[in-house]
């Protein structure tokens, strides 16, 4: 999560004096990068995943599952273990993995030791890789500790003991939270400083309110009896009773509630900057759909919520906008920022004929001075506005030792602002002095309980990304409809009962079926008997199609319609084959043997069955809570229920407990499927 320096962080009063300095030099650093790599081309597909875990400790005597605050000790141990490993100690097709700190002191983040390539064996090693990382972490925890891939801990911030060791929220000096202790946060100076500076810049604590799930015995109106309404330790303590805590809602007041969530993220390297921009745009409308399909977080601060996803909680948890920027108070220039710095994407950025101006239909403030500077340097309007929009934000963490940098060799000021714009996708320039190319990060998905599920979604998205490029698919809809889809995606049971705006015809003009615009094979193709040459690798560098001499441009509103998630994935009418349809068509362009294709189909079947017979994790968790013998039908997730839930999730991951409503009946945790090396 962002840049981890060793140094002296500045308070907000100190840091705001350097905000323009960081912006000015951040843009200079970006322009130096731009000049160096704007014409870079030919990078092959490299990609990776980031999986986040929460470490839970079990007290069988008290029947309490608690968050283990041993991140520093655990990471030190894992670092030592990893340093002692060699690639010979890891399963086939893998390098030694890496583990990283995250915001919560109970969290771990893991990544593969090296990027996956476009080979089929690498694609089918993802589950093995994830399983190995989980196993490695678990092996070096205490006997009563377990690493979970679980989006939100249901009893974070409740009364009573929910961490090990236990601390009081009375000493929450950075967040001033009524619920979360200071010790919940990673002790590295970046994290408490980020927490305190967001609160200081905002002028109040963050205020997150989720509608409570109304069950048979939920009090109406619901006024949360667990909020310490009368506490008087910090200046903001009265905010809850002064209106920040809404009736019939679950109130949360600290960054830890959002940034303490776990997720699954994927990053892809592109052929060049233009391909990265096309990929970024194409995945924007996909983000809300994948959020709904992976929904996994229906319980917050000891209550069931009437939402299934984490997104608005994280958006609220880092919302540093002032009352004027939120439109709550008048300002001199009426300058309003519509969204938190953690939210859905605001702008399409591809410099392509398919990206019509009408698609960017939402209000997007941007730094006009930076925009003009970028335009004068030669950047096109789309990309200049994207960067200038990111740079309306202030840098919220500055270390005194990093104020003055060499803008020709560093991009730290640029990344200070870029990395704290947390959106559904991130467009990532190459780092200085690196072999890494232009990249796109896909960020909307919730992490799943098992490595099988996480691998299935990772494989699906990487295959979809290749299908988009190979077939020149067009997913554009107005950004305002993407925003509406993000809101709908978080509703209870959205994957099954919701509808979403999606494009009706995703194929290029004149096409009735997906047709590949193949790149040069360069020895990576094989002839298919009686058919076209097939690719052995998932590739980059597919040429975009030129604008036809005649394009019939009708009203934008006629280009999209409301569809169910099932229709978006399986197709609707002749011009929309569905996301699964285009992925399967792309697989048909690959040289894949039957064994490999069977394993890919198992991953796609999980996605397909989520549209029908299988439940999302959020639905399963909600049903588990409501069917627990001690549940009082009052929306409360008690300590005992939470303990049994976490036990059940561990048993599911290990294959001990069968849940055919959540996972395929033949699910078993495994070291994964090993594709034969000659398929490479």
Poorly predicted tracts of residues: none
Which class do the helix and strand fractions yield?
alpha+beta
Binned, the helix content reads 25-40%
Number of strands: 19
Percent in strands: 5-15%
Quaternary status: single chain
| Helical run tally | 22
How far apart are the termini? Answer: 33 Å
For this entry, give a set of tags.
single chain; 22 helices; 680 residues; alpha+beta; two-stranded antiparallel ribbon
Fold blueprint:
Layout: H1 12-15, H2 19-37, E1 47-59, E2 64-68, H3 71-84, E3 98-101, E4 107-111, H4 120-123, H5 126-139, E5 145-148, E6 163-164, H6 190-202, E7 208-211, H7 240-244, E8 249-252, H8 255-259, E9 264-269, H9 273-283, H10 286-293, E10 299-300, E11 303-304, H11 311-317, E12 342-343, H12 368-376, H13 381-390, H14 412-418, E13 422-423, E14 425-428, E15 439-442, H15 451-470, H16 479-489, H17 494-497, E16 499-503, E17 525-526, E18 534-535, E19 560-564, H18 565-570, H19 579-587, H20 594-609, H21 617-627, H22 639-653
Parallel strand pairs: 2-6, 12-13
Antiparallel strand pairs: 1-2, 1-4, 1-5, 1-9, 3-4, 7-8, 9-15, 10-11, 14-15, 16-19, 17-18
Helix pairs in contact: 2-14, 5-15, 10-16, 12-13, 15-19, 15-20
